[in-house]
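I am writing to request your help with a piece of structural work I have in hand. Here, with my thanks, is the record as I have it:
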Amino acid sequence: MKTGKVINSWTIAIFLLLAVIIAGSVIIWLKNDRDRGIEIYITPAREIEGKIWVGGAVNNPGLYPFYKDDGIDEIILAAGGIQDGADLNAVKLTITGEDEGVALQKVNINTAESWLLEALPGIGEIKAEAIIEYRRQHGPFRDIYELEKVPGLGDENFKRVADLITVNE
């Protein structure tokens, strides 16, 4: 008789365990309703107000889209942020409308670093260093025509960059 009670208690335990597993499976299945669709949210496109030229003391000067709710911080961040130790007054912003042409930012030959001078047509590393050296020896350029006095620059190179340079802030 003892064996019958052991078999019955094991049988009851197995049935209870199966009942718990089935009940748990049903609950999980009901919570994860497979008929419910996946929700996808698409943020609306931001409205572009125009273009803005960011130059001067920023890490990546250039032309960037100007969105409706952008503030100055977002615009400067789009240009890579302000250069380390730079004066905030050296950041230049030029806003243009959709139909307007972009006013090119002229390179200030009194403050431009070598890499920026090298970006000018006909000015390579050697000529850029000559411009900087001339600036060190003679002080700031009084006008753009003084650039013709830089040794090794020449009249042709000056003509190529005349419309792209300035001595004003």
Notes: The chain is about 40% helix and 15% strand.
